[in-house]
Known about the structure:
The structure is a homodimer. By secondary structure, chain A is of the alpha/beta class. The first copy, chain A, has helices spanning 2-12, 21-37, 94-117, 143-147, 196-209, 256-266, 286-294, 310-314, 339-358, and strands spanning 43-47, 50-56, 62-69, 83-85, 88-90, 127-132, 152-158, 165-170, 172-181, 223-231, 241-250, 270-277, 280-281, 299-303, 319-322, 336-338. At the A-B interface, helix 5, strand 10 and strand 11 of A face helix 5, strand 10 and strand 11 of B.
Amino acid sequence: MREIIDLTKDLIRFKSTHTRPEEIQRCARFIETWFKEHDIPCVFMEFNGVPSVGALSAPRQIPVLLMSHIDVVNATDPLFEPFEKDGRLYGRGAIDDKYAAALSMILLKNRIESNRRRGLDDSTVPLGVLITGDEEVGGYHGARSALGGITCNFCIALDGGRVDKIVVKEKGILRLKVVAAGKTAHGARPWQGENAIERLMADCRIVKGFFEGLTEPEHWHRTMNLSLIHAGDSVNQVPDKAEATFDIRYTENDDVDDLIQRIGAAVSGKVITEEREPLFISPGSPYLDRLLALSTETRTGIAHGASDARFLTQFNIPGIVWGADGNSSQHSTDEHVEIQSIARLYDILDRFLTDIRENPI
Amino acid sequence: MREIIDLTKDLIRFKSTHTRPEEIQRCARFIETWFKEHDIPCVFMEFNGVPSVGALSAPRQIPVLLMSHIDVVNATDPLFEPFEKDGRLYGRGAIDDKYAAALSMILLKNRIESNRRRGLDDSTVPLGVLITGDEEVGGYHGARSALGGITCNFCIALDGGRVDKIVVKEKGILRLKVVAAGKTAHGARPWQGENAIERLMADCRIVKGFFEGLTEPEHWHRTMNLSLIHAGDSVNQVPDKAEATFDIRYTENDDVDDLIQRIGAAVSGKVITEEREPLFISPGSPYLDRLLALSTETRTGIAHGASDARFLTQFNIPGIVWGADGNSSQHSTDEHVEIQSIARLYDILDRFLTDIRENPI
């Protein structure tokens, strides 16, 4: 455990935010060097300037792939100085997602070393590790690009859930912008113009109507957040353009094309699809059954936020989202991970890999 | 007339926008030099970097002061190349307000020269001219500062109305910002936050209620324009702050303090008074009666926009807003002045001054 915590601290000290791409690079090179120093074959990949490191002991078809990321959201400098307190490790990236990179590195190292001590070939280790550098900004040049070149039977995105909750579904994202047009006029004669903000507000109420009455306890239904609104250049003019952006999260029960079409038909402004991301839906897997059998306290569940796991769905890779306990502190100023939960997670994964090696699926 | 048109063209060629304060300075210096070349005493004033030029032939108490301004609103370069077409002079500032500066310069010069030819003292010319440099941005360092040092019996702000319409009332301005607060949360879990934009939109509807049912034909009642709205930093967050700015124009029938208080009590957000400008209300004057008697086609009326004339009310100077015909083209890309109307205006003012000189009030 000490080894994982110390390595997590080393990773946290890299200020690997997307405002400092050079720090993401340095952190990725640190991981590459670490693998090489432990005599573990690894590949340093780079897509559009975003680094990923893959340590793929079984080159052709990896039974189990652990995926994590080293990029983090912005934070003030003190958050990059990790510290332990009351059984928790604090710092930016502690739970999201540097503990996961450290855990998977140490797990792979220990299993390879144990194998070598017994004179077995590295390829009998049923584990691969993929560490990416752009999960926080969409994963396009990290997970999406790297997963395209990897074949595996089962992928665990170590980036969500908690030890007793495996995430098997995450909502999809639909970002719509509504642009209302009006007619400008001098602010002293508003009756000569048509105010785009007032039209936009009417459209906002219409969009809101598509999300009313959806109140299941688990919120597994589509939701909407009116996240941005901007209009007006000059205080003494009737604005002739106003824009609002809606962050919509949808489930497998929504027909997204139909939703876009109906919103477009209902509002007076122009509707632009700014972003559309698929759902993550785990298809079920004998690996998952094996994992649940080993970890009797763990249940499957859902998550509202999206992650790189949606690319598993895109590439038809069976997988789950799972992780240590962070008490929903990711992205916050008191981001932390429960140290004991890392130990539990490590133990379950270690037994799971032994089980897979001894009883291949 | 040719002299006024040519001088107006010279003035239009200065790109005297507030993005180019050095051009406002150059234009003011051009006017100062012009007065000096015509041997007319003038003072170059500067308040907070804003130039004004005063040509005040009667140093103590000026019977009639003509006020205009040389600053203009932004425009593309071609608008600073004046041209004549179909009896109109086109260009930025043609009607707002460079023709007025040129007209008052030429009128003063002609009356002084005529006086001198007859061996009369300059002080018998009952006219002063004030040309300022910041009307378009509030007039604080132009008209407000310069008028404080001038005593006159009657001021004509040559910056509005038309030949057959003298403006004797302009609305006041009240600019209110409403700031709504909420509680941030991740955009995938909007039920955990409180959306400031939605609260702001509810407040906007409440503010709008204070202006409903006011529909007199001349619109001489308070009006409101929702001119700016801004909220949200990040597409995946519930916004915790949202701001809207209301441009309110009020009349003498409104109790502004009461209106602010009632709006503040009705909305859930915080109400900030960003700007408050007085009404212009002409108190009536024997000079105005004399002018109306001379110009039988001219009537008094109201205007919705505010101008530097509000400082006349502030300094208790009887006055009016009047001018040539521009067909409401000020600030537009086809800004122009009807050349014939300048001649009519000049003629009436010239006869008015003769009348004042011959029959002092």
